[in-house]
Design a protein that fits this description.
about 260 residues; mainly alpha
Length: about 260
């Protein structure tokens, strides 16, 4: 029960030794093993189970069954090839898995149950992906396929010859020299561009100073009257004086007696 008062570490430890004890009993049928595994399937579909406990059950119970079946398939393939060294390695792996007698399980039924639990709407996406992945591996075992990826074989021979390595190193050095020359060329171009821009700025400033004219200061008249008003006033005076002279002078048609004499 995921909600029992037992601490999580003890539950996890019990799950890790569960298959060990089950395999030691011997003569276990698929139906019996299914009955012992069923409580863990019920815990996986409980939302109240913590992520730590959920992961522990997936790793210690179901993933261990997958590892065991995977090594059995690999060992069977190696027996066909009659490779004794690799067969010993496979036996070592089985012993490391702590299962000397593999438990017979209905892998097809386990795959269906895990898929059904993962498809429930109450299961979150992270757990659903893990359950689907386990189900897919169990289905692969049923088909006789190895659910675990093959280990990568590393070759002792170098993948690239020394001649190709030297040529690649020479190309790399040439690229570095060209890059350095391009950088220096770019710096020189930037310096020339800055000089040209500064010269253009100075020429613009000088042309602006030459084209500008100093403003002429206007001298204010000491007369408090406006020039137009003075002109008009003088004009009136001159007209009145001319009129008075005309009034004093006799007309051209009439000459006095004194002027005649």
């Amino acid at each position: 029960n995921s909600q029992s008062s037992i601490v999580q570490s003890l539950k996890t430890h019990f799950a890790s030794v569960y298959l060990d004890e089950l395999s030691k009993t011997g003569n276990v049928t698929k139906a019996v093993s299914q009955q012992f595994i069923e409580p863990y399937l019920e815990i996986l579909q409980e939302n109240r189970a913590t992520d730590f406990f959920f992961k522990s059950i997936c790793d210690e119970i179901f993933q261990t069954l997958i590892y065991t079946a995977s090594e059995e398939i690999r060992r069977g393939d190696m027996e066909k090839e009659d490779d004794g060294d690799e067969e010993d390695d496979a036996d070592d792996i089985i012993r490391l898995l702590r299962i000397d007698n593999p438990i017979p399980c209905d892998f097809d039924k386990l795959g269906d149950r895990l898929f059904a639990i993962g498809s429930q709407p109450t299961v979150n996406s992270k757990r659903r992906q893990r359950l689907y992945a386990l189900s897919k591996k169990f289905k692969a075992i049923v088909q006789g396929k190895n659910p675990q990826p093959e280990p990568m074989k590393v070759s002792d021979k170098p993948a690239i010859s020394k001649a190709k390595m030297h040529k690649a190193a020479e190309r790399l050095l040439g690229m570095q020299e060209k890059l350095q020359m391009d950088r220096q060329k770019f710096k020189m171009q930037m310096k020339e561009l800055k000089k040209k821009q500064n010269a253009e700025k100075i020429a613009d400033i000088l042309s602006g100073l030459v084209s500008t004219k100093k403003p002429v200061k206007k001298i204010k008249s000491s007369n408090k009257f406006k020039p137009n008003a003075i002109k008009k006033k003088g004009h009136h005076k001159s007209t009145s004086a001319t009129a008075s002279r005309r009034h004093k002078l006799p007309s051209k048609g009439k000459i006095s007696k004194k002027q005649r004499q």
